């Protein structure tokens, strides 16, 4: 009974207190990619996705490094692609993140192992040269160190660290002088020379020498050749010491990675949420960490800044960027692929977001969108003035906190001065931030082209003929905030010679005579329109009649979301097929793929006090099988499909 | 991708001397070509930039200028209408063949290429021959799919002579009213699939 209880306690505690893989990731990581291969493998249904995986696995040319390719102890892509064969536990996420500890920067892969021994057996440990590869141990784990890739196995946790190639980081390694001759060599050599000179002198004085050259040769042969050997030994020892010191830095880094982090990424609310939702894959961006990350700093690399006195995190003033993170997840379900974005922020940001997103789409815009053959639309409704204010404060904060050199610091006051001169009402409220862009079908346009005619004797004559081409009807209708400013701007634009006044409130840009591609601009009360549909601006400036307007169901979607996007796949495919590939110019491959797609849609949710999210869904007509399998099949060459 | 028409013209000014002109007119598809010219590749095909086309034509012209019996080499590019022209005068049909051969050798990646004999003029018989059929690789399924992109493209061959024509071997070829010219319009996809369709013999 006692042993049974002990067993129960062990099982329960190992389950409850098992470390999650994400707890090994420091909270300061600027980005994290998580992939659940167990889900991906099941959903791909044995279809090969390796070429897509390859594009996300870092691939540095090993020849880029000083020490030869014989010490590439693991092929990271193969490890990810054949995770089961490497003993990885794919039921948990495999994570990839960037780490930068002092001079040791690179990509870290962290994963759980089902079989640590199998994983170790897959490592290429043929390299025995201690200059290129060193095996070490630490508390409970093993380390396999090379200059590029280093691996730690700590219990059932595996860490692969792919070090970035950086000139400064590798400078020391590359400048170790293998052939420097030290003081010991010279003093030993000097002593040896004295000894030989003395011997020769004594022999000469003895009067026994008959062949002088032979005597010199004999003396030289008595030189101590072990001096060179000892020099080489010392040179190698010195080089090994320096390389070992470099490996010590890598060891400190990777050993640190192979233990759960006290301040780990799981403490981030955004990460915690996206991790708990068990997505097929997700990408997390820690916005604040990026500000001081060299990859994302447009000013200078951090190493240079370090010496010039950059701004450190502790002195940052971050009322808006503090706790700001974003994540993007993807899930493949039966008949659809779903991409979600989630931005989390603090209460200061919410104060702005409440005002920015506290508006609804302008109803007046709907009447200018012909819904009879609507192929797709994008609707955006934000408060432009408030958005302008937010971005001003947001980017000022980012710039203020960004490490930069002394001269670059003038950028901020220069921008502030420029911004002070700008008429915000004109910039942000002429068009108030609410707009719809729609494709309302295809229309015929006549295009001229050159061809040839032949007379009875086949003499060639150049002629111009016309053909009908389909062109998508595009309409951009934007809500006007300040009508007086809008009218003023419209009147100024009308004066440009490229425009022709069609009506008081309509101007046109006529493409070249042969091309017949015309763009119209119109202004009606609180709506500004840009389109290529002459019928709209010439005959329907009061709006299309209600029965022709964008359907009520779509109007409702646009009114209830600040951002909404939809492509009606069937209509779009039919339209494109009819416009570009009809008759004998049919493209079966194109048609075949298009026929499998359902609608593509995207919409956001009203911002909550700490987060704002949006969801995009790619629907497929076949709802019986997984979207990943279907998409991979579509991406295959036609003959393999 | 769009269709184009290629026009190959030979004007004989005496029994063996004349002028050759090749016109490639893609004006009908110019809008699509303008759009495509902004891309690097389309459906796996690397698309040439305008500069690449000009450079190729220039190279061909230079090859022609160095060929014996070839003179008055002229080329023109019109990227507004996508019309490209190349013409030159030849002293003999043999020189014309050598000119075409030099272009083929100059532009081919193969180190050794058998002499091309595209045209023949002998004993009151003019022949348009296919001498490149063996150099055309068999099209795979993917290449066959790509051929659909140029559906509707044509090659028009017009040969004008100084003496009246008695007989034409190609059933689709037409004889001019004055009996001094022959015109043959063919689908380029068909020629690619079956190069022998280009063969034609004209007897005087």
Commentary on this structure:
The complex is a heterodimer of chains A (641) and B (204). Chain A has 641 residues and is an alpha+beta fold. Chain A is 36% helix and 26% strand. In chain A, strand 4 (133-138) and strand 5 (141-146) form a beta hairpin. Chain A is elongated and about 125 Å long. Chain B has 204 residues and is of the alpha+beta class. Helix content of chain B is 25%, strand content 33%. Chain B is built from 5 helices and 13 strands. Chain B has helices at 30-36, 50-65, 93-107, 141-147, 188-193, and strands spanning 5-12, 18-25, 41-42, 45-46, 70-78, 83-90, 119-122, 125-128, 154-160, 167-168, 174-175, 181-187, 200-203. In chain B, the strands form 3 sheets. In chain B, strands 5-6-2-1-9-12-11 form a 7-stranded mixed beta sheet. The longest helix of chain B is centred in the N-terminal third of the chain and has 16 residues, at 50-65. Chain B starts with a strand and ends with a strand. The model of chain B has no long low-confidence stretch (mean pLDDT 85). The chains are: A alpha+beta (641), B alpha+beta (204).
């Amino acid at each position: 009974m006692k042993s049974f209880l002990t067993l129960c306690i062990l099982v329960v505690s190992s389950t409850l207190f098992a470390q999650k893989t994400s707890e090994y990731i420091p909270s300061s990581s600027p980005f994290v990619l998580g992939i659940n291969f167990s889900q991906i493998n099941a959903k791909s249904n044995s279809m090969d996705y390796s070429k897509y995986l390859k594009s996300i696995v870092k691939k540095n040319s090993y020849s880029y490094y000083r020490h030869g390719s014989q010490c590439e102890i693991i092929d990271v892509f193969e490890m990810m692609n054949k995770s089961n064969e490497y003993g990885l536990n794919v039921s948990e996420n495999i994570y990839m993140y960037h780490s930068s500890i002092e001079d040791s920067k690179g990509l870290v892969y962290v994963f759980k192992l089902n079989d640590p021994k199998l994983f170790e057996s897959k490592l290429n440990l043929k390299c025995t040269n201690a200059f290129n590869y060193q095996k070490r141990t630490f508390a409970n784990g093993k380390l396999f160190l090379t200059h590029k890739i280093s691996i730690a196995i700590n219990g059932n946790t595996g860490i692969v660290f792919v070090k970035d190639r950086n000139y400064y980081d590798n400078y020391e390694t590359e400048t170790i002088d293998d052939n420097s001759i030290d003081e010991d060599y010279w003093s030993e050599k000097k002593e040896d020379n004295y000894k030989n000179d003395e011997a020769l002198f004594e022999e000469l004085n003895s009067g026994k020498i008959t062949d002088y050259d032979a005597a010199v040769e004999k003396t030289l042969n008595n030189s101590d050749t072990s001096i060179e050997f000892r020099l080489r030994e010392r040179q190698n020892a010195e080089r090994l010491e320096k390389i070992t010191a470099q490996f010590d830095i890598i060891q400190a880094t990777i050993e640190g990675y192979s233990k759960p982090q006290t301040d780990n990424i799981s403490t981030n609310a955004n990460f915690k949420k996206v991790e708990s939702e068990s997505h097929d894959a997700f990408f997390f961006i820690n916005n604040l960490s990026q500000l001081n990350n060299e990859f994302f700093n447009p000013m200078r690399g951090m190493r240079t800044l370090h010496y010039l006195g950059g701004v450190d995190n502790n002195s940052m003033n971050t009322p808006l960027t503090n706790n700001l993170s974003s994540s993007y997840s993807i899930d493949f379900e039966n008949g659809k692929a779903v991409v979600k974005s989630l931005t989390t922020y603090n209460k200061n940001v919410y104060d702005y977001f409440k005002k920015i997103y506290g508006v609804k789409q302008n109803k007046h815009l709907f009447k200018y969108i012909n819904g009879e053959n609507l192929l797709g639309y994008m609707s955006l409704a934000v408060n432009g003035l408030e958005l302008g204010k937010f971005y001003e404060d947001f980017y000022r904060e980012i710039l203020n906190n960004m490490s930069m050199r002394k001269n670059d610091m003038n950028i901020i006051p220069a921008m502030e001065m420029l911004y002070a001169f700008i008429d915000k009402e004109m910039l942000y409220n002429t068009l108030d931030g609410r707009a719809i862009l729609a494709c309302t079908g295809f229309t015929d346009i006549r295009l001229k082209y050159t061809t040839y005619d032949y007379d009875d004797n086949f003499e060639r004559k150049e002629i111009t003929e016309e053909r009908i081409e389909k062109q998508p009807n595009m309409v951009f209708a934007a809500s006007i905030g300040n009508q007086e400013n809008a009218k003023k701007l419209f009147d100024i634009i009308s004066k440009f010679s490229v425009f022709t006044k069609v009506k008081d409130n309509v101007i046109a840009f006529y493409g070249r005579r042969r091309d017949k591609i015309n763009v119209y601009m119109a202004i009606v009360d609180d709506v500004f329109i840009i389109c290529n549909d002459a019928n709209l601006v010439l005959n329907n400036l009061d709006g299309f009649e209600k029965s022709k307007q964008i359907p009520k169901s779509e109007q409702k979607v646009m009114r209830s979301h600040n951002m909404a996007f939809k492509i009606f796949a069937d209509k779009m495919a039919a339209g494109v097929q009819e416009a570009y590939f009809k008759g004998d110019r049919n493209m079966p491959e194109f048609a075949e793929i298009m026929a499998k797609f359902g609608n593509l849609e995207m919409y956001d949710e009203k911002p909550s006090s700490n987060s704002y999210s949006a969801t995009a869904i790619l629907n497929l007509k076949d709802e019986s099988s997984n979207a990943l399998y279907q998409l991979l099949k579509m991406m295959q060459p036609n003959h393999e499909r | 991708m769009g269709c184009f028409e290629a026009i190959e013209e030979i004007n004989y000014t005496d029994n063996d001397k004349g002028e050759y002109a090749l016109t490639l007119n893609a004006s009908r598809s110019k809008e699509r070509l303008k759009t495509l010219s902004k891309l690097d590749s389309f459906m796996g095909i690397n698309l040439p930039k305008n500069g690449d086309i000009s450079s190729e034509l220039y190279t061909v012209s230079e090859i022609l200028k160095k060929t014996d019996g070839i003179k008055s080499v002229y080329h023109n590019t019109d990227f507004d209408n996508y019309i490209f022209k190349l013409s030159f005068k030849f002293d003999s049909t043999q020189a014309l063949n050598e000119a075409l051969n030099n272009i083929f050798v100059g532009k081919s990646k193969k180190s050794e290429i058998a002499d091309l004999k595209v045209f023949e003029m002998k004993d009151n018989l003019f022949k348009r021959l296919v001498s490149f059929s063996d150099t055309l690789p068999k099209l795979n399924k993917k290449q066959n799919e790509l051929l659909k992109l140029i559906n509707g493209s044509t090659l028009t061959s017009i040969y004008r002579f100084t003496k009246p024509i008695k007989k034409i071997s190609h059933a689709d070829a037409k004889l001019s009213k004055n009996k001094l010219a022959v015109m043959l319009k063919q689908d380029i996809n068909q020629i690619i699939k079956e190069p022998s369709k280009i063969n034609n013999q004209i007897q005087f």
